[in-house]
Amino acid sequence: MNNIISKLQVMGDAIASLNLEDSSCSLDILSAIICCVPNVTCLNLRSTCCTDNLLSLIKKMCISLNTLNISECKNITDAGMTNLCNVNKKDGGFDSLKVLNILKTQVTHKGVTILLKHLPSIQWLNYEGLSMILYSLHKSDVHNNPVRYNLRNFEYNQASITLRQVLEVWTVMCPFVTRVSIQDKIDENDLILCTKFQCLKKLKIVSINYFPRGTVISPFITLKGPMLTELKVMHATVSVEQIVKLCYNLKKIFFFNVTFEDFSSSDLNDLNSLTSLTVKHLNLQRDFAFKSIILLIKASRNLKELYIHYVEHFSDTLADAILELGKLKLIDFCFVDIGIPTLLRFFSHENMTKIRIDGCPLVSNEDSSIMRLVSDNQFGNTCSWVIDYSEIGSESVWDYSVWSGEISL
């Protein structure tokens, strides 16, 4: 460890990003490391022995720090949040810090309130219940308080206070929100209220209505479709016709157990920016679903990644549409009823670099035609699959993984 410190003393000025996640270093060693990297902008101390006092040192030494992850640091308390802020007016504020993760620490609502009041630069604050804390702070003065926050992320997950009440505060106090993630029983009025976020680019909707048709996102798409760059929808109804017509800036789409509205027109805009499409559980109203996905694929000529999971009756018509994508590099089939003859067609796609097959009932890992292509493929494609994938039920119905830990500035 002494050798590492010695090297950092010489080269530390050049380090911009430092990852010490799960490090067993002592507090003294961590302190020594921090003193050696004055120009670091991204620091990951997740699950380390970081303390409130070390946060004071970080603030003093790392004046250009932009991103700090101290999640799962059990020694971090509200006092540490005070140390990060200019509460006592003894020195300058930590104006460079924009991203802070304090999940699973000892920080309480009091500490979060300190951050909100005294760290105006913060844009991404990762803390469970943040939306409710800010609501409680300003529910009585939302229209009279001139304060506005730079927060970019709004998350709501079923709470005693209704989504509408919380949104009425957030849309006023946090005008720069770019990402909205909601898990609740969502109605049309809630979605229309979300349109007040003037900078919104990423929308994630997880409806807990039992039937997907209970939540329709079309009213939102009509009003804000052109602004979106990412759309993730679970257990709701979507109109691909509207999406293709209005959401021409989308880069990523994720559908999980959605219902598709029928449509008549097929002469629509191109989604030239769309590079990633994920479709899971495409089994409700199958005719409309396949018709919609084919339209979406045909409109997305620049698609590079396609994930199709838990889909029955995979058709040659769908395969034809996919194989027309000249820039497709990755296709992922998971528990899809795709036969060997159809699958083999994808190996002839000259730009494909990865084909993944997990749990597809009609494909055996011992199939000679597949194995021959894996071992001797002129296009250099790679093929992988999971031989034993028995715990299908282990995947959460809410699929939290889609945005876990994502930070985009």
Automatic annotation (TrEMBL):
Family matches, as SUPFAM superfamilies: RNI-like
SMART domains: LRR_CC (SM00367)
Name of the protein in its database record: Uncharacterized protein
Species the sequence originates in: Larinioides sclopetarius
